[in-house]
Amino acid sequence: MLEKKKAFEILQKALSYSKSEMAEAVLESERMSLTRFAESKISDNIDKEETTLYIRSVKGKKMGVSATGDLTDEGIKKVVAGCEAVLEYMLPDDRFISFPTPTDIKLKEDLVSEGTSNFGPKERAEAVSLMSRIARKGNMKTSGAFRIDETALAVAGSLGVQRFFTGNSAQLSLTVSGDSKNSGWAMEYNADASRINVDALGKKATHKAAMSRNPVALPDGQYTVILEPAAVGQLLLLLSFMGFGCKTFYQKRSFMAGKIGEKIAGDNFSVYEDPDDADFNFRPIDYEGVPRTKVALIENGVAKGVVYNSYYANLMGTESTGHALQPTNMYGPYPKTMSVAPGDSTIEEMIKSTEKGVLITHFWYLNFLNPMRTMVTGTTVDGTFHIENGVVGSPIKNMRTNQSILEAFSSIEAITRDRIVYPQYSVLMKVPGMKINNFNLQTEEEDEGKC
């Protein structure tokens, strides 16, 4: 991985070539080590490392952005020159004020876990073998992925910003399936790969797959549902995309626009962007080198705030919360480490208290319907069960939901005290399970082509 000294040599060289009024250089190195498996056999072993240099230049309120993977002297000169050449074709942005200036806040630069660094293809193969043996006892097969991520990020600006970070993490996702189209799923994220409980994951997914044979169909309607943490995380992720970033908030395309200080969810629902939580083991800086700060997004059901980068913070007269993404992104900042406040229940207690309901493991292909109403659609998958008289009963054929997330989070009856870290699309979420009333579910038409 990229070392700090080498990173800053590259960044300072890039800044020295700039002739702009303001310049920023960002160096990101990512290494992914991935073991994929299907039919209980390893199908791919991938080890890929990529380093990208981003340049942002400003002259006369015009801004240019360029990126390259060529870190030779010639490559660095070329990307800086290209970034400045494009300024000729840009329109001035009178709203732009400045890149960030440095702060004295001291941050951890190294969050590398040795348990993850030393977890190689041999250890991943052993994990796949163990899970496959567990599934084989039930005449079923495994598929999934064991992924190790190592990252390094360095930022330097002509106004004096200099920040560096390196860290790593691991995640294991497992699906166990049988000949009756039955399946079960489990996953775990951990900063320390050696602490992932492979045996427990294998048994959990296998048990769900075994229980999922011969599912029955339920009629369309509103149900009391018990969402396991991953299902809650999937809803939270889409809620974040629809409203927790400052760009859509400023443009009034966010459900949070005009709602700050107003009730938008239930009293028992709170979510924070919380970069300081050690369970995330996430970088403490953004792509502008600004320290990431804790932000109350929704607190006791009341809309509290969104996350900012320097551009929109300057535009709206506030401070950056340290959530800028890569300079080439067009979506604006989003939360990366969200934490939902826990409750005082357990999944088992929720089941016992439910006369009639549905237990949902997670969703397949959730997507937007109406962002302003936080409406999404998707289907249940890999373990959906009918609850009757406080007991998990028959498996259910997958059902589609067309549901407002905020309406769901306004109808939470109970929340678990235990939470997991759920990763998806480079976002980490610390989420509990939830019991939610009046959740929309419809019979899903079977599609032989669906994977």
Notes on the structure:
The chain is globular and about 70 Å long. The chain contains 10 helices and 18 strands. The chain has 2 domains: 4-198, PmbA/TldD fold (2-Layer Sandwich), CATH 3.30.2290.10; 215-451, no CATH class. A hairpin with a 2-residue loop joins strand 2 and strand 3. With 451 residues, the protein is an alpha+beta fold. The longest helix is centred in the first third of the chain and has 16 residues, at 121-136. Helix 4 (121-136) runs parallel beside helix 5 (198-211).
Set down the secondary structure blueprint.
Layout: H1 4-17, E1 22-38, E2 41-59, E3 62-68, H2 73-85, E4 110-111, H3 114-117, H4 121-136, E5 141-157, E6 162-177, E7 183-190, H5 198-211, E8 221-227, H6 229-243, H7 246-250, E9 271-273, E10 295-299, E11 302-303, H8 310-315, E12 337-340, H9 347-352, E13 356-370, E14 375-388, E15 391-395, E16 399-404, H10 405-408, E17 412-424, E18 427-443
Parallel strand pairs: 4-6, 8-13, 12-18
Antiparallel strand pairs: 1-2, 1-5, 2-3, 5-6, 6-7, 8-18, 9-10, 9-12, 10-11, 13-14, 14-15, 14-16, 16-18, 17-18
Helix pairs in contact: 1-2, 4-5
